[in-house]
Write a structure and sequence with these properties.
The protein contains nine helices and 14 strands. By secondary structure, the protein is an alpha+beta fold. The protein is globular.
Length: about 350
């Protein structure tokens, strides 16, 4: 399945070159919690650090260690396998002595437990502010540091396309292709949901590429469904002039389609872009309904916060913060100017 490659916003600037992920220490991701556990409640929040293990593998170990159903274990999002990853899990445990819980974690769950604390509710998907990344680029160009600093400055002004990128679709787009087939013949299970999500992601990237080609990346148009950065609230754009002043002051951004039967659709020129992408997919709205794909909106433009760049031997150390659901690969390709997709990236 062919998928659109979203244009670079820093294409006019020379890249650093380089490769990533020679080992897990080259890619460090730390989840930023949406809130801290209160210390009271029937769920235990476990702050956990591990290397070379997926989120689902950790969930399986936690379920075995504490004899609970995997479905009852909460987490905010998936993390990479080939990485040093820190994230929080919630477990429905009434065991009053948390020192016993900590001992079992140490003996039966791989990785390092950083904190064990109670809270009232299960941790839900999306319950994070985002992630901090610390990534080592190897074999970069001899002028990589000044080039990287120039790229970081450009991203600070123009923002970043909130693309998923090819790693989301699977090899040669196979996950997205499987997802497209499942929409015609729906079935349950997490793998089916993963594949259908890959199909949704591929269409979002096609929409984003089309929008950028039309010169609409740094502006909104009447009919757009826009999003407030401060609180995530969505609203329909009516007054282009007034809302583009808010775009310029980094208050709002346009959003794009994660197509589904209940998705809030854009109208006008913005709606025509969405209709073009959806029509090209060959899928009908009724099929999305039968496949139980409700759909949602996703920010089309984001900003990379707290960028820091340092020279290391034969490379660069790049650190930054992204909002939840955004991909480090999208940032890295702006720097390297090559498709250095991160192997086994989950989130």
């Amino acid at each position: 399945m062919s998928v659109a490659l979203v244009p670079l916003v820093t294409a006019r600037l020379p890249g650093t070159g380089g490769v990533v992920k020679r080992d897990s220490a080259d890619f460090v991701v730390t989840e930023i919690p949406l809130y801290e556990p209160s210390g009271l409640g029937e769920h235990v929040y476990v702050r956990h650090r591990r290397a070379n293990r997926t989120t689902r593998e950790v969930v399986a170990e936690l379920a075995r260690a504490f004899r609970v159903d995997e479905r009852d274990i909460g987490y905010a999002g998936l993390k990479d396998r080939r990485a040093i990853a820190t994230q929080t899990f919630s477990l429905p445990l009434r065991e009053p002595d948390l020192s016993i819980v900590a001992e079992r974690l140490a003996s039966e769950v791989c990785g390092e437990t950083l904190e064990v604390k109670r809270h009232a509710n299960k941790l839900k998907r999306g319950h994070s502010l985002g992630n901090r990344f610390e990534i080592r680029l190897h074999d970069t160009d001899s002028q990589s540091l000044p080039r990287a600093l120039a790229i970081a400055s450009e991203l600070g002004v123009r923002g970043l396309p909130n693309a998923f990128g090819p790693q989301r679709y699977g090899d040669d787009g196979r996950n997205a292709e499987h997802g497209r087939a499942l929409i015609e013949r729906p079935r349950g299970g997490w793998l089916a949901r993963l594949h259908m999500s890959a199909w949704q992601s591929s269409l979002f990237d096609s929409w984003l590429a089309l929008r950028m080609e039309r010169g609409l990346f740094e502006s909104v148009v009447a009919g757009d469904v826009a999003k407030k950065f401060a609180n995530g609230a969505l609203f329909d754009v009516v007054d282009e002039g007034a809302e583009n002043a808010r775009v310029a002051s980094l208050e709002i951004t346009h959003t794009g389609p994660m197509f589904g039967s209940e998705m809030r659709a854009a109208t006008g020129v913005a709606g025509e872009l969405e209709d073009t992408v959806f029509a090209a997919s060959g899928v009908r709205l009724e099929q999305l309904r039968k496949a139980q794909l409700q759909g949602t909106r996703r920010a089309g433009r984001i900003f990379v916060d707290d960028i820091a760049i340092d020279s290391i031997e034969n490379g660069l150390l790049v650190s930054f913060r992204l909002p939840k659901g955004s991909y480090a690969t999208t940032v890295l390709r702006e720097f390297t100017k090559n498709e250095c997709a991160l192997a086994d990236e989950e989130d």
